[in-house]
Amino acid sequence: MDNIKINGIKTYAYHGALDAERVLGQFFITDVTMYLDLRAASENDDLEGTVHYGEAYELVEQVIKSEPVNLIEHLAEKVIRALFDRYDKILEMDVTITKPSPPIDGHYENVSITLNRKREN
């Protein structure tokens, strides 16, 4: 299936289960893959046949900056719901949220989760 990807949306926000995360905040990196039929856009050169990725970016950023949540899993679900609500062309979506510096000891690059959701009829 065709897809649109928006990768590496870097947003400073205050999500986390620990009090320190809610006070100090941290960066979150969001990657979104939206699956949809892009045939009309590719054949007709018409924005109506696709999802405006600039607007989608702004919506994702708005969700990430919104009211703090405990889990990045829940945050990813909020991103998915917002995009599905805004764009009926999206049939399926992958959303990955990465915490580059979570408050855990150890040597690692980052921690991330990915949710995959299909539009329910």
UniProtKB/TrEMBL annotation:
BP terms from Gene Ontology: folic acid biosynthetic process; tetrahydrofolate biosynthetic process
Quaternary structure annotation from Swiss-Prot or TrEMBL: Homooctamer. Four molecules assemble into a ring, and two rings come together to give a cylinder with a hole of at least 13 a diameter.
GO cellular component: cytoplasm
Domain called Dihydroneopterin aldolase/epimerase: residue spans: 4-117
Lineage, opening ranks: Bacteria, Bacillati, Bacillota, Bacilli, Bacillales
GO molecular function: dihydroneopterin aldolase activity
Keywords associated with the record: Folate biosynthesis, Lyase
EC assignment: 4.1.2.25
Keyword field contains Lyase: yes
Pathway terms, separated by semicolons: Cofactor biosynthesis; tetrahydrofolate biosynthesis; 2-amino-4-hydroxy-6-hydroxymethyl-7,8-dihydropteridine diphosphate from 7,8-dihydroneopterin triphosphate: step 3/4
Family: Belongs to the DHNA family.
Annotated SUPFAM superfamilies: Tetrahydrobiopterin biosynthesis enzymes-like
Protein's recorded name: 7,8-dihydroneopterin aldolase
Annotated Pfam families: FolB (PF02152)
InterPro entries: Dihydroneopterin_aldolase, FolB_dom, GTP-CH-I_C/QueF
Highest taxon, organism lineage: Bacteria
Reaction equations catalysed: 7,8-dihydroneopterin = 6-hydroxymethyl-7,8-dihydropterin + glycolaldehyde; 7,8-dihydroneopterin = 7,8-dihydromonapterin
Free-text function comment from the UniProt entry: Catalyzes the conversion of 7,8-dihydroneopterin to 6-hydroxymethyl-7,8-dihydropterin. Can also catalyze the epimerization of carbon 2' of dihydroneopterin to dihydromonapterin.
